[in-house]
Amino acid sequence: MKEHQSVFQEAYRFYRDGFRNMTVGKTLWKIICIKLIIMFAVLKLFFFEDFLGTRFTTDEERADYVLSELISSKQANSLFLHDKENKND
Predict the structure, then answer these.
(1) Structure pTM?
(2) d(C-alpha 42, C-alpha 48), whole Å
(3) Quick one: which of 56, 88, 57 has its CA closest to 69?
(4) Rounded Cα distance, 59 and 63, in Å
């Protein structure tokens, strides 16, 4: 019967059994989860403002701003690469 199990099922069972048998590892995973919550939730609230939400009122304005920033950064990168290639020649 084991021959018919897929690689994904074997990988799932491997990790499931590994997590069940951990002793110190469970505590370490709890610490990792707490750190991730602090990093992504708390720090975002205090240090990263909602730039698009505070400066633009409609979704269309936000989309236009993001599109213009993507295009301008792509153009700047292509100019940088073009200058870099010219210096190497």
Answers:
(1) 0.42
(2) 10
(3) 56
(4) 6
Separation between Cα atoms, residue 37 and residue 80, nearest integer Å? 38
CB-based contact 65:52 (threshold 8 Å): yes
Mapping DSSP onto H, E and C, the string for the chain reads: CHHHCCHHHHHHHHHHHHHHCCCHHHHHHHHHHHHHHHHHHHHHHHHCCCHHHHHCCCHHHHHHHHHHHHHHHHHHHHHHHHHHHHHHC
Tokens encoding 72: 């301008």
**Residue holding tokens 């992504």?**
40
Per-residue pLDDT of the chain (89 residues; tens, 9 = 90+): 556 678 999 999 998 888 888 888 888 889 999 999 988 888 888 888 888 888 999 999 999 999 999 898 777 777 777 777 777 66
